[in-house]
Amino acid sequence: MSVEIVLDTRTGERGGFDDWVRIFDESWTAPRDNLERILGLLSEDVVLKAPTRPPMSRGRSAGRKAFRAAFSAFPDLTGKTKRWAASGDVLFIEMTFTATVGGRKLSWDNVDRFLFRNGEAVERIAFFQDSTIVLRTARRSLRGWVQIVRLSLGK
């Protein structure tokens, strides 16, 4: 039995987890340009948790603000899905992020766990392999400190 999930909360388009992951992966090749598409994968009142952000953000508007802060700090940030698995109403996506941090190209691994309710992604928790790698690298240069400030201030 395949689960039908919402591929675009703005249009109601539905499909399977494989379709959702394909859209997610394609969007992360140029996430600044695809921000609204990424947000369209998420419920309007999605709960977002990540080790580098405040304890919890709720809603697409909070997600938009957090993503914009990340893209301001790391303009070349991209992500690439390595593998994924789904069971019931839960989806795990293992991916690698890449960005220039403090003038150096840096990659780090991440696993996002999405919880679906009524077909919509209502919660995302990010698990970084090493949540301090970006901050440790950024602290090594003035350019990196500027990135940390931008990320912290959400600008």
Kindly describe this structure.
The protein has 155 residues and is α+β, with helices and mostly antiparallel strands. It has a single domain, classed as Nuclear Transport Factor 2, Chain: A, CATH 3.10.450. Helix content is 32%, strand content 40%. It has five helices and eight strands; from the N terminus they run ββααββαββββαα. The strands form two sheets. A six-stranded mixed beta sheet has the order 4-3-8-7-6-5. The protein has a two-stranded antiparallel ribbon with strand order 1-2. A hairpin with a 4-residue loop joins strand 1 and strand 2. Helix 3 packs antiparallel against helix 5. The longest helix has 14 residues. The model has no long low-confidence stretch (mean pLDDT 89).
What is the helix fraction of residues, given as a range?
Answer: 25-40%
Enumerate how many helices there are, as a single number. Answer: 5
CATH class: Alpha Beta
* Rg result: 15 Å
SSE topology string: EEHHEEHEEEEHH
Shape: elongated
SS-based class:
alpha+beta
Q: Can you tell me the CATH topology?
A: Nuclear Transport Factor 2, Chain: A
Task: Give, in spatial order, the strands making up the sheet with the most strands.
Answer: 4-3-8-7-6-5
Main beta sheet? 6 strands, mixed
Low-pLDDT residue intervals, each spanning 5 or more residues: none
Could you say how many structural domains there are in total? Answer: 1
Calculate the terminal CA-CA distance, rounded to whole Å.
Answer: 44 Å
Mean pLDDT: 89
* Number of DSSP E strands: 8
Question: At CATH's second level, what is the architecture?
Answer: Roll
Q: Tell me what portion of residues adopts beta-strand conformation.
A: 35-45%
